[in-house]
């Protein structure tokens, strides 16, 4: 083997060795890169897992929210119903107070008027507060006109609060003088104190209760 051939072989071997070393370095570098990428992926995956865990634990369950809202609504409804019932009770009490007897306010009230009546004269009858209209009928038993008027009064309807008091024309001389009565069938209206309010002589006139009341209204 010549000297030149030996140099050529050595040069070729050196080149091959350098190429092998380069390949080895490249392979080593590739392995390191792959390892680093694997570590980065693992770390990122772990971070994603850690981040997802608090999110899942911190997010409330929608069902829980709905249940909570329903409980709140129920509570509000119950409270409102209770308030309405209390207010209704107060209104009923106030209404009961309003419906109370008016006499409770001052302890007195106008007396109800009595049913219309025809009876004998007396001072107590004149003062009877149950009647707002009192009429004295000067009657004589022997007078046909007096009997006709009496029959009409007894058969008719005397209004509520009206009383007609029968006065004996022959015996009640003082009353005739007081009210200046000179003829039987005379009707005199008086107040509760017996004060004169009006006079009407019914002899020969319409013998009815309505006529008596109309003439002495």
Name some characteristics of this structure.
rod-shaped; 217 residues; 5 strands; five-stranded mixed sheet; single chain; 58% helix; alpha/beta; Glutaredoxin
What report would you give on this structure?
The protein has 217 residues and is an alpha/beta fold. The protein has 3 domains: 1-59; 62-99; 117-215, Glutaredoxin (3-Layer(aba) Sandwich), CATH 3.40.30.10. 58% of the residues lie in helices and 13% in strands. The protein has 7 helices and 5 strands. It has helices at 3-58, 62-98, 103-106, 123-126, 144-155, 173-178, 209-215; strands at 117-120, 133-139, 162-168, 186-190, 196-201. It has a 5-stranded mixed beta sheet with strand order 1-3-2-4-5, covered by helices on one side. The radius of gyration is 63 Å and the shape is rod-shaped. The model is unreliable at 33-39, 41-45, 51-60, 62-68 and 100-109 (pLDDT under 50).
List SSEs in N-to-C order. HHHEHEHEHEEH
Distance between the termini: 176 Å
Q: Number of helical segments?
A: 7
User: Largest sheet, order of strands side by side?
Assistant: 1-3-2-4-5
Q: CATH superfamily assignment of the largest domain?
A: Glutaredoxin
Question: Structural class of the helices, strands and pairings?
Answer: alpha/beta
Number of strands: 5
CATH fold-level label of the largest domain: Glutaredoxin
Helix content: 55-70%
Reported CATH architecture of the largest domain: 3-Layer(aba) Sandwich
The proportion of strand residues reads 5-15%
Number of domains: 3
What are the low-pLDDT stretches, counting only 5+ consecutive residues below 50? Answer: 33-39, 41-45, 51-60, 62-68, 100-109
What's the gyration radius in Å? Answer: 63 Å
State the CATH class of the largest domain.
Answer: Alpha Beta
Mean pLDDT: 73
User: In this structure, how is the largest beta sheet organized?
Assistant: 5 strands, mixed
Shape: rod-shaped
